[in-house]
Amino acid sequence: MEITGIHATPGYSGFFFDDQRAIKQGAEHDGFTYEGEPVTDGFDEIRQAGESIIVDIELADGTVVRGDCAAVQYSGAGGRDPLFKAEEYAPVIEGPVADALEGRDATDFLDNAESLEQLEVDGDRLHTAIRYGVSQALLAAAGSATGKTKTDVMADALGTEPATEPVPVFGQSGDDRYNNTEKMFVKGVPVLPHALINSVEKIGEDGEVLLEYVEWLVERSQELGPEGYDPRFHIDVYGMIGEIFGAPYDRDEVVDYFADLEAAAAPYPIQIEGPMDVGNRADQIDAMVELREGLKDAGVDVDIVADEWCNTFEDVQAFVDSGAADLVQVKTPDLGGIHRSGQAVRYCEGTDTRAYLGGTCNETETSARACAHVALATNAAQVLAKPGMGFDEGYMIVENEMRRTIARREREQLATDTDEVTADD
């Protein structure tokens, strides 16, 4: 089945672009926005509307399939590609990208996606958001052309056996870390709440505010969760533990704080994302190795999660190879082609690092559904509920896509088994 056309339409994403550097430097809230001037290149405001590009691929039989280009909330930070502006990049998709892909066989997903990864315009690789969105459309095109689920197309490309149950979904609360988390408890969300601990005020000058919050998580989970509920707490601290304690991270003061977090979360497991942000990949890896070894030596059972400076496939490899994290976030828009996210999850196989298929609140429902198929195809440790910060919508989109796909695969397998029995008779 031939690809006959590619079209790009600027649109919105599920949240906003935020200038992380300006926020970390003390920008104050002005209602939903922030006061002050942006400091990261490309930003006109500290908080501005998130953008996407809707990519439609036409096939020879008239079918039209979709993928969405999107970039993370904190674009331009931590070594990521610059701010993604839809009007600027749409002509690239309808020009050089279309020229490279039109006429190709839609069933060759991996070849098509790899050719997109290698494509250069004026000597530069395509923005990660372009590779992300167009590859989603290529995945959908292959599914349509072959009659397979996108999970099976991805599994075939990666050489995996898909999960037969939904991958645990990780809910993110945003700043509404109490109300949204209570919603998660009622729905029995397996991994939660993210909590957006991105300032000293939210963690406490000595970490006491976060400890109180974790104690609240235990209490309310037991009051509101369904029978037999056994959550895993996952909190993103945006480097704030490093801000309040500083290096070295294997010293008693730091290790004791993590022991306090473990005790506050008991009887449930807890994992801390982005404990520090030291400004570059090499030093970030060293700091996280130092912390992880300190926790291990002290017998403190708190998992740490790599996020900052872990953006590309090569970054994931570096963190995994160094043993710098218990979990590594595969930040889907930052890896470019969606198959690269799948490959990054697979890279964790056989190591003591688990793969968290993440992303950002600033994606779309289309990219979130595509990632649900990557999660199933690779049987990732957990997958992010996205887009948006309202929780319910993102959880519904990701969980339902996995359930629907599993049910379809079961029906197809049953039909195959029935046909085989009939043929034998």
Automatic annotation (TrEMBL):
Swiss-Prot/TrEMBL keywords: Lyase, Magnesium, Metal-binding
Domain Methylaspartate ammonia-lyase N-terminal: 1-158
Gene3D superfamilies given in the database record: Enolase-like C-terminal domain (3.20.20.120), Enolase-like, N-terminal domain (3.30.390.10)
Top EC class for this record: lyase
Record-listed Mg(2+) binding positions: D236, E273, D307
Domain Methylaspartate ammonia-lyase C-terminal stretches: 163-409
Keyword flag Magnesium: yes
Catalytic activity: (2S,3S)-3-methyl-L-aspartate = mesaconate + NH4(+)
Subunit structure comment from the entry: Homodimer.
Family the entry assigns: Belongs to the methylaspartate ammonia-lyase family.
PANTHER family: O-SUCCINYLBENZOATE SYNTHASE, O-SUCCINYLBENZOATE SYNTHASE-RELATED
Record protein name field: methylaspartate ammonia-lyase
Organism: Natrinema thermotolerans
